User: What shape does this take?
Amino acid sequence: MLTILGQQGSRFCDGQSRRSFLKVGAMALGGLSMSQIMKAQRASAESINSGGAKPRAAGGLGHKSVIMIFLPGGPPHQDMWDIKNDAPINIRGEFNSIKTNVPGIEIGESFPRIAAMADKFSFLRSVVGCKDRHDAFQCLTGRTNDGAPPGGWPCMGSVVSALQGPVVPAVPPAFGLSLPMGHKEWADNGSPGFLGPAHSPITPGTGEIMDNMILRDVSLDRLRDRNAMLRSFDRIRRDIDTSRTMEGMDAFQQQALGVLTSSKLAEALDINKADPKLRDRYGRGTEKRRDDGGPELLDQFLIARQLVEAGARCVTLGFNRWDWHGGNFKQARVVFPMLDQGVSALVEDLHQRGLDKDVSVIVWGEFGRTPTINKDAGRDHWPHVSCALMAGGGMKHGQIIGSTDRLGGEAKDRPVHFQEIFATLYDRLGINVETVTINDLGGRPRYLIDPQYKVMKELV
Assistant: This one.
């Protein structure tokens, strides 16, 4: 693992030293070295039916990517994209709706930036098929754990890793940016399931103790000094060459070393090189975790964009904490504006860079919230219906998809299943879910989603 040391003594709220925060790659997964992982990746390709699973024609990036923003705890759809103006006050809550730049579309007043560019978004108001389970699993895989095959279902990043591999050797295809949380299931960065550890998402900053390689003499503060960083990489290469280690390496080991000593990945994880005005547009957020959830790090939205631009195919992150059984509106007044800023900045940035056709963005949580506001001014778990926000990917936006009943408790028109959303995201990556299969541990071919679920025609 490549660790870039930060200032000693600076710590996160959980006591973890900042020195161990920025880690480039989980280079030892399940006992496998990086070179073994690369060998396994090549071998696994032989057991995959990749019919149609090729990158689409080159666009602004030359490859297609997905950025998934997971909202741990379940966001309240009735207060965000589906305001019920005509419902009783104990259903409607404290927020009003506002007009957007698309005639006929109104969303919650807490999202003025998204409202001003609603033509670049699709608001899914009738997402169904979720379970009352507080974890990221379904958002990462599109499936529940019910009836999972041995080894478990792989997350989207692992599937893409297995089917399409890296865009460039120095940048792994899948990343999970979620930091440790008190409720561990929310901090899930995705499991490779039956695909095996060769296709695990890389998780910078998850606090592993084992450090196999340290980028010497370079702190987080000095990462902005590219020359210093490259000199440190050169010292690693020179030390290895002097010890004649390179002569004993096979091609896979040399490729793994290329990943470890490449500046491309380190630069993608460094936000200090970004224009300060761009960083201000995204917002900085805070490292403070909200109760047992995630931090409010808006910087991660920018890191996600930098990673896909560097070559990543799938980047996921968990933002804040949304399990508001009490004080729903008080907390929303703090969190909603941050989400509005981060998501609008990300989508605006993608469009300005000409990447809106290459990068799909999805924002969602594991389920919705109850229509009725409880005695503590909160909303409780509600798996009957939830919401999602989608952007980019060359999809047709500026629309509302689906609706709920008058109280926001049940899907009314056009229920949208979780797996339909996954089918659409895979399609945007250039993967045909009707033909592509991956073999489980028993050699049985498995479709990426259940066959009855198709790509959403409203979007594609």
Remarks:
- Residues 1-33, 53-59, 206-224 have pLDDT under 50 and may be disordered.
- The longest strand covers residues 121-128.
